Amino acid sequence: KLGCSDQSATCLRNVPVSTLVANNATLSQLPNVDGKVLTTDYATAFKSGAFNRVPVLSGSNHDEWRLFVELLSDLSGSPVTASNYESQIQSQFGVPASLASVIAQQYPLSAYADPAYALGAAGTDVVFACNARMDVRNLSQFVATYQYEFNDEAAPNIYLPALGYSLGAYHSSEIQYLFPPPVPRLDPTQNQLALDMQKYWTQFAKKGDPNGGGLPTWPKYTAATDQAMSLVEPAPTTESTFATDHKCAFWAPIIGG
User: Fold this and answer.
1) Is the dihedral of CA 229, 230, 236, 238 positive or negative?
2) More reliable by pLDDT, 248 or 29
3) Angle ∠(191,186,237) on CA atoms, nearest 5
4) 3-class SS string, 14-33
5) How many helices (H) and strands (E) are present in the chain, helices listed first?
6) Whole-angstrom Cα distance, residue 114 to residue 71?
7) Where are the alpha helices (DSSP H) in 63-187?
8) What's the rounded mean pLDDT across residues 182-209?
9) 154-174 as b/e, with b when 16 or more CB fall inside 10 Å?
């Protein structure tokens, strides 16, 4: 598309900006399987064990998609409501109306305090949670793997103006716990959770195992036990209902898990 015979920096640096802009729709943030740097896609590599065999600490946040519900609503100029719920599912997830209707039945508005929560739950599950679980299920066959779920529903909102609903444990909200900002935003119990998380991550970086230092035991992930560490106050705890909470059985045929 850009007139380059390969992906060399020299060629790409010489592409006019106008050509880049004209082809913007064809560019992607997704990994590019070029047969050189990446010889296959992540899912295939994880399933087959064709990756660098090192311990893995991986996870997701309980309400990942709520942030995107707001951002995408701002872009479209149309906040999610009860009347446009299915059409929002269709547009935000890129699915046909027939599948949007099925998803809406799995995430009925009656089960949520706000339409944004319903849409946020569906997006969290299909984009983040169930894919994260699929990855750790594959990786754990070959290396020591530790899954987490960040679960502080009162995580400070550091990106957007005050909203009419809570962002919960939204996408990237855990970063402020791992790398504290210059101006403290966390209350005392959140600060304790932050300290625990920093200890886990440091232990893992040091020895490939997050356990130690008097913290609650973080079990290795196995498909048989299907356990994750719930990062929540007053102390992290093991959870065994991740797949059920995020409706992964429903999403498996759709995401290929």
Assistant:
1) negative
2) 248
3) 45
4) CCCHHHHHHCHHHCCCCCCC
5) 12, 4
6) 16
7) 66-76, 85-93, 97-106, 115-123, 130-139, 175-178
8) 93
9) ebbbeeeeeeeebbbbbbebb
Q: Is the dihedral of CA 217, 222, 223, 224 positive or negative?
A: negative
Query: Which burial class, exposed, middle or buried, applies to 135 when counting CB atoms under 10 A from its CB (0-12, 13-18, 19+)?
Result: buried
**Mean pLDDT over each residue of the chain, to the nearest integer:** 92
CA distance 40 to 153: 37
Q: What was the pLDDT predicted at 25? A: 66
Q: Which amino acid is at 133?
A: R
Alpha carbon 70 to chain centroid, angstroms: 16
Place of tokens 């935003």: 185
- Phi (first) and psi of residue 243, to 5 degrees: -60, -40
Instruction: Tell me the average pLDDT across 212-218.
Output: 94
Can you list the pairs that 19-28 forms with residues at least 24 positions away whose Cβ atoms lie under 8 Å?
A: 26/1
Which residue in 222, 235, 255, 217 sits closest to 42, CA to CA?
255
Structure tokens at 146: 């530790």
Do the beta carbons of residue 209 and residue 144 sit within 8 Å? Answer: yes
